[in-house]
From TrEMBL:
GO terms for molecular function: ATP binding. CDD domains: HisKA. Residues 342-547 form the Histidine kinase domain. The keyword Membrane applies. The lineage of its organism: Bacteria, Bacillati, Bacillota, Bacilli, Bacillales. InterPro entries: HATPase_C_sf, HATPase_dom, His_kinase_dom, HisK_dim/P_dom, HisK_dim/P_sf, PAS, PAS-like_dom_sf, Sig_transdc_His_kin-like_C. It catalyses: ATP + protein L-histidine = ADP + protein N-phospho-L-histidine. Its EC number is 2.7.13.3. Keywords: ATP-binding, Kinase, Membrane, Nucleotide-binding, Phosphoprotein, Transferase, Transmembrane, Transmembrane helix, Two-component regulatory system. The keyword Ribosomal protein does not apply. This is histidine kinase. The chain crosses the membrane at residues 34-51, 63-88, 94-111, 131-149, 161-183. It comes from Cohnella hashimotonis. It is an enzyme of class 2 (transferase). It holds the Pfam family HisKA.
Length: 555
């Protein structure tokens, strides 16, 4: 009996054993239900063939395969294997035995139908309770008839029958539980392996993306472990040093700092590694560039919070530093300009008094001395004109505008321009468009702009020169052209024409064109210069019409 029981135990354990081997190789759940169902059916047939060769047994352990297939292969496999089991075991039996088997399988499938839908989502201990319920139904169905038959057959009672029943029942219980237990272990192991593979792939993918990101950002990044060994360097960091090779990973940070000539870099990293500082920063210059470097401690995510190394980041702040210096310079120049404007404004008052007394002396002086007083008054008027231009340029006032036509403002200025041209022996040609849309203009400032450009053109020409003034009315803008036939302006001087106090004339102040540019900008306009040496110069002033964004379109 012992040999028979052991052989049945081996047959009953075949499904879980073969599943362990197969599943550890496949590592997928897609075909596991089919595999368990097929192997369980084969083991059930093998147990039945053993019974045919060696005679009936008290409790058929092959039914463990039916329980295993019922739980892991689904309800169709449970019905199929149960029906096959019933056909194999009730062949040639009485009607009572057939009815008993049918009653058992109905009860078994009813319980299975209730517990199987939630079986896969339960934990391991809940699954064991489900298995206990199924084997309890099966063992009672098989043992109760055998014990009843033993009690009725008082003539031929086998003293070891009850012991054999207990042995078969214990084997049945252990095999049922072990089958589910080892299948669950296989599922958990493969699931953990799959999760580990997914995490490994994710880690590799994230690592690749992080390395690409570190190579793309405009920052020099160096990772250093707790021993001071470099673990990663991006391309920007390698470009910082001329004598640095690409195989610096594995090098000590002090060696890299020596190759790059950055002793301060080694010192701030040492503060993090040796003295426990969290963050340390420095500014240094390398290859003519100003760098801002920050070293920060990298700590682990555990409760201990131990340092795992240092991340060193250097940023090129040359342009930022240059911009900061330019802003500081502009603030100082702005302060000087405000002071100069204030002082210049105060100078006009004593100059007006001086001119008044000079004019009074001119009227009372002899005629032969009046030419001297006239020169003094002309120079005072010239100085006053320079002061007015400077104040107009320095002031940032709000311009009061009114609806007007550029052509009408220009026609008001033509008599004065013609008079200046006639005195110089020059001529003026007009090329005005017939109609022109109105603009929002400050007439006084536009007149000053036109007069400055016209006088610049007249002063740039010799006698017989021609000054051409024209207008154009485009869809989204209005343009004013002032062109002369002078000697032209070299390209290197054109770029500086609108700088305050820069002039190409011997008696110029360098404020006229700067004032013109300031007026145009206050009217949301622009000034362009087209000049060729020996051919003349053309100034083009463009005003954007109301409701149009011509500068956005042009850019």
């Amino acid at each position: 009996m012992v040999n028979s029981l052991l052989l049945q135990v081996l047959i009953a354990l075949l499904p879980v054993g073969t599943f362990q081997v197969w599943f550890s190789r496949q590592r997928q759940l897609r075909h596991s239900r089919l595999f368990i169902g097929v192997v369980s059916g084969l083991c059930m047939l093998l147990g039945h063939f053993y019974m045919i060769q060696n005679g009936p047994v008290i409790l058929d352990l092959g039914f463990v395969a039916v329980i295993t297939a019922s739980l892991y292969s689904g309800f169709p496999f449970a019905v199929l294997l149960s029906a096959a089991y019933m056909l194999l075991h009730v062949h040639g039996e009485s009607i009572a035995d057939i009815v008993g088997f049918l009653a058992f399988f109905l009860v078994y499938h009813f319980i299975l139908y209730k517990v199987s839908p939630a079986f896969h989502i339960k934990n391991r201990y809940a699954k064991m309770r489900t298995v206990a319920l199924l084997w309890a139904v099966a063992s009672l169905s098989f043992l109760v008839p055998a014990v009843a038959l033993y009690l009725d057959d008082t003539a031929e009672r086998d003293p070891g029958f009850l012991l054999a029943c207990a042995a078969y029942l214990i084997a049945f219980i252990l095999i049922a539980h072990l089958s589910v237990y080892f299948i669950e272990i296989a599922y958990e192991r493969v699931s953990l392996q799959s999760q580990l593979l997914d995490l490994t792939r994710q880690y590799k993918s994230e690592s690749i993306r992080m390395r690409r990101f570190l190579d793309m950002v405009p920052l020099a990044v160096i990772f250093i472990d707790a021993r001071g060994i470099i673990t990663h360097v991006n391309e920007i960091a390698l470009e910082m040093g001329k004598n640095v090779a690409h195989n610096v990973v594995g090098m000590h940070y002090t060696e890299l700092a020596r190759l790059m000539g950055l002793d301060a870099t080694a010192s701030i990293i040492q503060l993090i590694l040796n003295k426990g500082e969290r963050v340390s920063s420095e500014m240094f210059k390398i290859q003519g560039r100003t760098m801002l470097a920050t070293a920060s401690s990298v700590t682990d995510t555990g409760a201990r919070g131990l340092s795992e190394g240092v991340v060193y980041i250097a940023q090129d702040v040359t342009d930022t530093q240059r911009l900061k210096d330019e802003l500081d310079k502009m603030e100082r120049l702005s302060l000087v300009g405000q002071m100069a404007a204030s002082i210049t404004h105060e100078i006009r008052n004593p100059m007006a008094v001086i001119r008044g007394f000079v004019q009074l002396l001119n009227e009372r002086s002899p005629s032969e001395q009046r030419s001297y007083f006239r020169i003094v008054m002309e120079e005072l008027d010239r100085a006053n004109a320079i002061i007015n231009d400077f104040l107009s340029l320095a002031q940032n006032r709000i311009v009061e505008k009114e609806t007007s036509s550029l052509q009408s403002v220009l026609k008001d200025m033509l008599p004065l321009i013609w008079a200046d041209a006639n005195l110089r022996g020059q001529s003026v040609e007009l090329d005005l468009c017939e109609e022109q849309d109105v603009l929002e203009l400050n007439g006084k400032e536009i007149k000053q702009l036109i007069l400055n450009l016209a006088r610049n053109g007249l002063e740039a020409m010799d006698e017989k020169g021609v000054l051409r003034i024209g207008t154009r009315d485009l869809e989204d803008r209005v343009q004013l052209y002032v062109s002369d036939t002078g000697n032209g302006i070299p390209p290197e001087k054109v770029e500086r024409l609108f700088e305050p106090f820069y002039t190409t004339k011997e008696q110029g102040t360098g404020l006229g064109l700067a004032l013109c540019l300031s007026i145009a900008e206050r009217h949301d306009g622009r000034i362009e210069v087209q000049s060729a040496v020996g051919q003349g110069t053309t100034f083009i002033v463009t005003f954007c019409k109301s409701g149009y964004e011509c500068w956005v379109a042009a850019e």
